[in-house]
Design brief:
By secondary structure, the protein is of the alpha/beta class. It is 35% helix and 20% strand. The protein is globular, with a radius of gyration of 18 Å.
């Protein structure tokens, strides 16, 4: 890379974040387009209580240009921004922050990370979809699915959180005690961190209720094949790996940060190599 003191840097912050493949994916794309002298993408583990300090640093450092928020910062970041895109406002979560004329502007590209891979293999209109979780990622997923006229249900261990999110987006709730109804759904999407270390040996739902011909999408991408996806394959369900979400939300994010069309295949290749696909 051809960095200088003028290069703009973008940081992904989360807790945890050491597993993130976003730096490798974005930096490879910068090199492909010959803009690796202009941008560099880094990562930093940041606790929620310290997020405010990161935002302050972004405000005072000229070349601190972009901020990517992953778990658990996607909702918390909203309170520190100057402007938020209408879609991100409706979602109530931001994963992409860029500095424009000194103002911190927030966007959400997560919905594209789920909708694009799903629409490559199925129509979403009228499909019965179960979203697992009620955090920032789940908010974007529910919003994206609703826009495609899917029939959305939310399942979360804390029923109150599921009910609150369902009320906001006018969707339905599946009680955690009624997991036998999981077999009724066309699509199941895990929007929780269950499946990632240190929870890689458990699933967010009872996999015995999965069935053949369902689509099971796990947004966790490390490990590449989570326990949920392994169990889904045993049931002969169609699976979508989490790196697909990482790729397509990253493509949209890249274009926001750089103003250039993303080299999608280069970004995909990096992820495949890192995950040894």
């Amino acid at each position: 890379m051809r960095l200088s003191a003028k290069s703009k840097f973008i940081i992904i912050v989360g807790d945890p974040v050491s597993h993130s493949l976003s730096p490798a994916m974005h930096n490879a794309a910068y090199e492909k387009l010959g803009i690796d002298d202009q941008f560099v993408y880094l990562g930093a583990n940041v606790k929620v209580v310290n997020l405010k300090e990161v935002v302050l640093a972004m405000r005072v450092m000229d070349n601190f240009y972009g901020l990517t928020c992953t778990i658990p910062h996607k909702v918390e970041i909203l309170k520190y921004l100057d402007w938020v895109d209408e879609k991100a406002k409706k979602i109530g979560a931001v994963n992409t922050v860029v500095k424009k004329n000194g103002l911190l502007c927030g966007y959400n590209t997560d919905l594209l990370g789920v909708v694009i891979p799903l629409e490559k293999i199925t129509y979403l209109k009228g499909k019965k979809v179960l979203v697992l979780g009620a955090g920032g990622a789940a908010r974007a997923i529910v919003y994206g699915l609703k826009n495609k006229k899917a029939l959305v249900y939310i399942l979360n261990r804390t029923l109150e959180k599921a009910e609150k999110l369902a009320k906001e987006f006018d969707v339905k709730v599946l009680n955690y005690k009624d997991q036998k109804k999981i077999s009724d759904f066309d699509i199941i999407i895990n929007a929780t961190s269950v499946g990632m270390e240190p929870f890689s040996n458990i699933t967010p739902i009872d996999p015995s209720f999965l069935r053949k011909n369902q689509i099971v999408f796990d947004i966790v991408y490390t490990p590449k094949e989570t326990k949920l996806l392994k169990e889904a394959k045993k049931k002969k369900a169609k699976v979508i790996y989490g790196f697909e979400m990482l790729l397509y939300q990253g493509v949209a994010q890249f274009e926001i940060y750089t103003g250039k069309k993303a080299p999608v295949e280069v970004m995909r290749k990096v992820l495949e190599e890192k995950l040894k696909i």
